[in-house]
Amino acid sequence: MTALRKTPVAVDPDAAPFVIRAERASDVVAREALLDACFGANRHARTCQRLRDGRAPAEGLAFSAAQDGRLVGTLRLWHVSAGDLPALVLGPLTVDPSCRELGVGAALMTDALAAAKARGHGAVILLGDAPYYARFGFSALKTSELSLPGPFERDRMLGLELREGALDGAWGMIGSTGALAPKTAAPRARRALRPVPHAA
After folding, report:
1. What digits encode the pLDDT tens for the residues 170-183?
2. Is 136 exposed, middle or buried (CB count within 10 Å of its CB: 0-12, 13-18, 19+)?
3. Which one of 3, 90, 166, 176 has the fewest CB atoms closer than 10 angstroms to its CB?
4. What CA–CA distance (Å, rounded) separates 39 from 49?
């Protein structure tokens, strides 16, 4: 997939520009390190993570922000059912603290939502701060009857319709519906290692 944003973006003219592009396999280690740094070691215990565990992101909807070849932001969308309605769940959106004044998060959001709409998706749901996400059109107007498989703050459950009426009547538990993530096999060299006695 080609990058959706072809022109480097920066708020400060003296700052190094960044680009938004499709996530690459080579981003995985840096992405995981960034998520750990921003959300802490307990991030895998969060309720929304249960919707992502063992699943692959929605096709064409995993994005990276890079600055001078370094990963500085990540955002992915995942297939879910909002009760009986198909939707996407967004998250996590993460930006390196050193780049938060450059508009990286807003650029990731704008490109991801445009790509989701272009692919025919009807709605996006997320858990987040309403004042931040309202600028992208998210609100709690149609999410009050939705639940998650674990504890969450009701006022942080937000939705955005990419197609009018896509969340009409949304009710019930949000559940994962995306493709299963491929299992990674242990490298051949690692499997071949045998224990070696150590000198005392």
Report:
1. 999 999 999 999 88
2. middle
3. 3
4. 12
Mention every residue, 6+ apart, whose C-beta is less than 8 A from residue 143: 125, 157, 158, 159, 167, 170
Q: pLDDT tens, 80-101?
A: 999 899 999 999 999 999 998 9
Helix or strand run (H / E) with residue 10: none
Residues in the chain: 200
Q: What is the pTM (predicted TM-score) of this model? A: 0.83
Residue 99 near residue 64, CB atoms below 8 Å = no
Q: What is the biggest distance separating any 2 CA atoms in the chain, rounded to whole angstroms?
A: 71
Neighbours of 197 (CB within 10 A): 5
Average pLDDT over residues 12-20: 71
Q: Cis before residue 92, ω within 30 degrees of 0? A: yes
